[in-house]
Design a protein that fits this description.
By secondary structure, the protein is of the alpha/beta class. Helices cover about 35% and strands about 10% of the residues.
Amino acid sequence: MSLARLVWSAQLLRYDFGRGHPMSPARLDLTMRLVEQLGLLDAPGLEVVSVPPAPDALIETVHDPAYVAAVRLASQQGVADPLRGLGTEDDPVFAGMHDAAARLVAGSVDVAQAVWDGRASHGLNIAGGMHHAHRDAASGFCVYNDAAAAIRRLLDDGARRVAYIDLDAHHGDGVEHTFWDDPRVLTVSIHQDGHTLFPGTGNPADVGGPGAEGTAVNIALPPRTRSGPWLRAVEAVVPAVVREFRPDVIVSQHGADAHARDPLSDLRVGVDAQRHGAHLVHELAHELCDGRWVALGGGGYAVVDVVPLVWSSLVAEALHRPLDLALPLPAAWRAHVAAVSGLDAARVIGVEEVAWRPWSAGYDPADDVDRAVLATRRHVFPLWGLDPYHD
């Protein structure tokens, strides 16, 4: 049994919407170059695998066949289908799109199955996390929903309960919608308030469909939420509901776009806070699931100075080898960044460790983040027999 199974090959860089699109494959390339130069690829217990594109039958466990056919047509003949989100500004058509998106699905399903079968304790697909794709439409840079497909495979293989934790700045709407009526899946999304950011959903009153009330949990944070309050919000909601749910496995999405330098959100969450978020999820997996944890990438558009740092730290966390914030980043990696981007790369992983006030310290009605957290707790916690006001 390996400690961690990581999906990676250069073929994953083919998920490319073209020059100038925010979802640049350079973020994956720079991340994996940093992972390699930090020595993580040679760490004991890490297994690196490549995967072929997923077959249609696998994709159709979470997508309509007609939609898959439309993606194939767009991929092969360049035929746009705006009603299905294909050929839009967010999801422009590109040659090979079907295979590129299907490979992300195959990767997330591969590591999920390895974790469930006991071949790996943790699974990683940083190219995955395409949480906006819906059953019949592309959305928000996401063509196929690999996270939903991984959860579906876990359920089909016998998992009784799967917890999905989404730390992306944008609401994990596609995954939530897929399992809205399924009490076997808990979806928890910590995101910027949908009134101020795409996709406009994820309100705290959205708690799940009939028979699944309480299994959709949404923490909608105000713009400019900083690292400490963000971690306070995560700690105030996530551990309590996940413990009550008692999952067999945790799937998490680690979009790095909550950072202040990210151009597509208004949150202010630093690298160290996002590392703490991954650590919290990791600890819950060991506490509740015998370590069964599937970690996916997601958003993140500060390609040079945020995404590689957050996702390298995620890989290190899964290997039980957390990186020191003050660790000097390899000179060769920094030189490569300068050569391909013309930008000056970070010299260390992070600046300083973040501190936060725990929810047990008391609710502050004058604090807009505290009000957002309490709104979620009021809607969700009573459904689990929990006190919205106190730990």
